């Protein structure tokens, strides 16, 4: 009786596999299926491990692409993260509190965040860093200097409410408004700002950085105490307030530069 001839493993038509992966939108998996298959054979992976690795690599690439696009669309400046914030230089900032805010629970709950303190103490850095963390957690974000935001609001002053709701600063999960208080608003600007805050109240989060204490906001909002009360009533309901004090980072950098210059001159 002749011995049975062992069956050969069926050949894999990678071109057909690549085509199917591409048609399913798994472009990265399609481009790297042969590499993953070779690694799978070399390390003797079970079939489910090969499939899992192929899908994991696709997800990683998609997430990187999502982050890059979302950060570009957000308008967030680059280079400011929680990792490079100097907590030791600014002891008034509680690291634990910032890390709690970085979980983005307050954005999920549509709460607001007010950061107040003198210029240069790191408000903008923290605002940007929290914005980046929000993007990483899947939230839509828009970053605006107040001056630029007011210009956009004035352009939309006559836009119908239905169209206005489509504007990015109206419908993102987190709107960051930087540098409130450096220049007082006109009555029109204060009214448009109130419309923005009122619309977003209960619909999305607002993060504001300001050099003015709450008691000084009437002078920022065209001297209108009634309007100021209405705005603060919405901003401070279900909100977080960070009071940041201390030395200016920019002044520290100037002092360090001056010290280096003096040291170089003395050694000359």
How is the secondary structure organized here?
Elements: H1 14-23, H2 27-42, H3 47-74, H4 95-101, H5 105-108, E1 112-116, H6 123-136, E2 141-145, H7 146-155, H8 161-164, H9 168-171, E3 174-180, H10 187-200, E4 205-210, H11 217-220, H12 225-236, E5 239-243, H13 249-267
Parallel strand pairs: 1-4, 1-5, 2-3, 3-4
Strand residue percentage? 5-15%
- The CATH topology of the largest domain corresponds to Rossmann fold
Radius of gyration: 27 Å
User: Mind summarizing the main beta sheet?
Assistant: 5 strands, parallel
| Shape, per Cα inertia axes | elongated
Widest β-sheet, arrangement of strands? 2-3-4-1-5
Kindly give the count of domains.
Answer: 2
Secondary-structure element order, N to C:
HHHHHEHEHHHEHEHHEH
Structural class: alpha/beta
**What low-confidence regions span 5 or more consecutive residues with pLDDT below 50?**
none
In short:
With 268 residues, this protein is α/β, with parallel strands linked by helices. It has helices at 14-23, 27-42, 47-74, 95-101, 105-108, 123-136, 146-155, 161-164, 168-171, 187-200, 217-220, 225-236, 249-267, and strands at 112-116, 141-145, 174-180, 205-210, 239-243.
